[in-house]
Each structure stands twice: as structure tokens, then as C-alpha cells.
Design brief:
The protein is an all-alpha fold. The protein is built from 12 helices and no strands. It folds into 2 domains: 183 residues, no CATH class; 44 residues, no CATH class. The longest helix is centred in the middle third of the chain and has 28 residues. 31% of the residues are buried. One of its GO terms (biological process) is L-valine transmembrane transport.
């Protein structure tokens, strides 16, 4: 395919990815505002809050680390907490590897950094339609609009933190936002297994100290998804040659 023909196809896929991400953007905006407010309410400076928004780029990891930062917990413990909160990205990387293995390294790194729940759902719904260039462009179209809404809403939450209470009402909106993220991704046995396992462990471990129940639920969900994921067929064994 000529470059002249490939570029319009790439632009069309970018636009299609952006359109496909639109239904998830209200949830992204709510989650971003809640995270922005929480960072300021827990005592983070403006520069630190903005840095976490643009560099960490993960509401779950940020909210897992914030209480630890407020109490002066050791840095290693905070890094471990953020890693555990982001364990779902281990599963995401297995999905992305099928599409990004032959993509140039700079584009691969940028795409992986920006890919969160909503854009990955867009890619999963597209399955194997289109060329590799079109699938990557579709994913990045969803990535770009999601990143813009996330960063903008987080900055808005930081700016309006003094006007918005960090109470049960705002927390309930955050829960609804997470549900809006999660429900469209419940497709197939691995996703449902992860959901059932994580919910069961979260309920059973709700009273564990230091939010360890949340981390245990994440581990259970990732383990269940990996266990239920289809295995590649084993390579056939070579038959020994007959002597003679």
C-alpha cells in the first residue's frame, strides 16, 4: 500500500478510535475530578499533584499511594502499593503484545503508556479488523482523547478542590465511574473470572488493615484472568527418523 493511501487510512482509524472512546469519557472525567480533589485534600502541593496527574497517569495507583504519602510511609512501600494497584496492566500487556510486537519501539512505548481501561476495550471490540497500522491508530485515537479528558478533569479537580468536599457523595461518584469502566470490558471467561474472584476476595478481606484486602483482590483477579486465558497450542514433537 502506498504512503498516500496509508495515511488517510491511519487518520480514519484515529478518528474512529476517538469516536469509539466517547461513551467512556464521562466516567474518565468523574474519576479524574475525584482524583484531583483527593490529591489536594490529602495535602499534596500543586506541583506534586500535577506531576502525578501527567506522570503516574493512573487513578487507582494514585489513590492507593495518597494515604501512604500523607502518613510519611517509606518510599519502597509506596512503590509496592502502586505496583499492586496496577497489576491489571500485566493482563493488558498480554493483550497489547499481539498488536504491538512489530511496532517501532518509540511508538510502542508511547502507546503502552497511554493505554488504560477504556482504550483497551476499544481495541478488544475491534478484534483483528483492519491492518496492523489501522489497529494501532484506532487504539491511539482512543488513547489521545482519553488522556486529554483525564488530564483536563484531574487539573479541574485540583483547581476546584477548595470548593468540592471529599465526602461520601464524591466517593460514590467515583465508584459509579469505575463501574462504567469495568462493565464494557466483561467479555469472555478471563474477564468474568477476574471480576468474580476479585469481588469475592474484596468482600472477604474488607476488614484487613492498611487496605491489604484491596491488594489481595487485585492479585486474585489477575491470577484468575491468567489462569482462564487460553493457552497456545503445544508445538508438535518431531518424530524420530526410522533407521534403515
Amino acid at each position: 500500500m502506498s504512503r498516500r493511501r496509508r495515511h488517510p487510512a491511519r487518520r480514519a482509524a484515529l478518528a474512529a478510535g476517538a469516536r469509539a472512546a466517547l461513551p467512556s469519557l464521562p466516567a474518565v472525567a468523574v474519576w479524574g475530578v475525584v482524583t484531583g480533589v483527593a490529591m489536594v485534600k490529602l495535602g499534596l502541593a500543586l506541583a506534586t499533584s500535577l506531576g502525578m496527574t501527567f506522570i503516574v497517569y493512573s487513578g487507582t495507583s494514585q489513590l492507593a499511594v495518597l494515604p501512604l504519602m500523607a502518613t510519611g510511609t517509606a518510599v519502597l512501600t509506596m512503590v509496592l502499593a502502586a505496583a499492586l494497584a496496577g497489576l491489571r496492566f500485566v493482563v493488558y500487556s498480554a493483550v497489547l503484545s499481539r498488536h504491538l510486537a512489530r511496532v517501532p519501539l518509540p511508538l510502542r512505548l508511547g502507546t503502552c503508556f497511554l493505554t488504560i481501561d477504556g482504550p483497551l476495550a476499544v481495541l478488544m471490540q475491534a478484534q483483528a479488523r483492519g491492518t496492523l497500522v489501522q489497529r494501532v491508530a484506532l487504539l491511539n485515537g482512543a488513547n489521545l482523547v482519553t488522556a486529554a479528558v483525564w488530564c483536563g478533569s484531574s487539573v479541574l479537580g485540583i483547581a476546584l478542590a477548595s470548593l468540592l468536599p471529599l465526602g461520601p457523595e464524591l466517593g460514590f461518584l467515583a465508584v459509579l465511574a469505575l463501574l462504567a469502566f469495568a462493565v464494557p470490558m466483561l467479555q469472555g471467561r478471563p474477564a468474568w473470572s477476574a471480576a468474580v474472584a476479585s469481588v469475592a476476595v474484596a468482600v472477604a478481606a474488607a476488614d484487613w488493615p492498611h487496605r491489604l484486602g484491596t491488594f489481595a483482590a487485585v492479585l486474585a483477579g489477575v491470577a484468575a484472568a491468567l489462569w482462564m486465558s487460553p493457552r497456545p497450542p503445544a508445538a508438535p514433537q518431531a518424530q524420530p527418523e526410522q533407521a534403515g
